[in-house]
Structures are given as C-alpha cells and as structure tokens.
Design goal:
Layout (H helix, E strand, L loop, with lengths): L26 H17 L3 E3 L9 E5 L10 E11 L4 E8 L2 E11 L1 E7 L5 E7 H13 L15 E3 H7 L7 E2 L1
Antiparallel strand pairs: 1-2, 2-3, 3-6, 4-5, 4-9, 5-8, 6-7
Bound molecules: nickel (II) ion.
Length: 177
C-alpha cells in the first residue's frame, strides 16, 4: 500500500463522473482501498474518494469522528447511493483535501439514507444525520465530479483556514429549511 499524491481542484479527474465497480471483492479494489486508507491517514482528513488519488472509480472511505473528537471506525463504501430524507437543510463548515487551505460553509441535508458495498461484497445500508450525513454527501459528490464550493450558497463564507480559525465563529451559520 502507498501514500499517494492527492488531486487538487482544477485536475480533470475531479470533474469526471467515476466508473461503477463491477466486483467489490476484486483484488485491485482491495489494493485501491488500502492506498486510500494510507493516503487519508497521512493527510489527517476524515474522508477520501478514489478520484482524489486519480482513480475514477466509485469508492469512498471515511471515519466519522467520535463525539470526543477522536477518529472513528473506518467505513468503506463501494458504488454508494445517497438518498436525502425529509428534514432540515443545515449550513456547516467543510474542508477538502483537494481544496487545501480553505474552509467553506455548505448547505446539506441533515438526514440521509445511504447504501453501498463493503470489501466483502456485503450491502451496507444505513441512515445518518448531522456531521455523519454531511461527510457521506461530501465524499459521494466527488464520484459525480462535484467539489464542495459548487454546493455553496454564499461565497462570503469561503475562508482561508488560518482566518477561519481566528474568525470562523463570527460567521452566523444557521439551519435553514
Ligand atoms: Ni473532499
């Protein structure tokens, strides 16, 4: 397994619709996920999609942080599908390893259901809310060539990380319908 260079905004692979995986249990998929885990752990992010390591296939991985802020259990989703459930839309801060140095406030559905396959070929079928739902929507967007700035409603809420750390709490973010 290897730590791979991450594609940054502007690279065509991030705009492409990624290809479905024919066999989630195939050896090359296992290797791809291994590389994604190494690359994610090296970067310190919470999630990664295959196109971010220049592989245009429908695979995402993520770790939802625990309430104490610790790194959570790893999820691997192959050929994921996201269904937005009825409920509020909330605006929250996001960053992306392909958009380094920036944070932006993005409106997202607060409740989703998602399905996909793990490396054993087993169906994963979960409901999620809040930050968990946000991470899944962000990562799965990568598979359709969408980066979070394209989801932003207000570009005044795009900031450099250093400034965001200093002033981010001054931005009024609210749950809207
Ligand atoms: Ni991202």
């Amino acid at each position: 397994m290897a730590i791979l260079k991450l594609a940054r905004m502007g690279h065509p692979v991030l705009r492409r619709k990624a290809e479905a995986v024919a066999d989630p249990t195939a050896e090359d998929v296992r290797r791809l996920v291994g590389d994604m885990i190494d690359s994610l752990d090296d970067s310190g992010g919470v999630g990664l999609a295959a196109p971010q390591i220049h592989v245009s296939r429908r695979v995402v991985i993520f770790r939802v942080p625990t309430p104490e802020g610790k790194s959570g259990e790893l999820s691997v989703l192959i050929n994921p599908e996201v269904e937005l459930l009825p409920g509020a839309v909330a605006t929250g801060w996001e960053g992306c390893l392909s958009v380094p140095g920036l944070r932006g406030a993005v409106p997202r559905a607060t409740r989703i259901r998602y399905r996909g396959f793990d490396l054993a070929g087993k169906l994963v079928d979960r409901e999620a809310e809040g930050y968990h739902a946000r991470i899944v929507q962000h990562e799965c967007d990568h598979l359709d060539g969408v980066l979070y700035p394209q989801r932003m409603a207000d570009f005044r809420l795009l900031a450099f990380v250093e400034e965001w750390r200093r002033y981010g709490e001054e931005f009024p973010l609210s749950a809207d319908e």
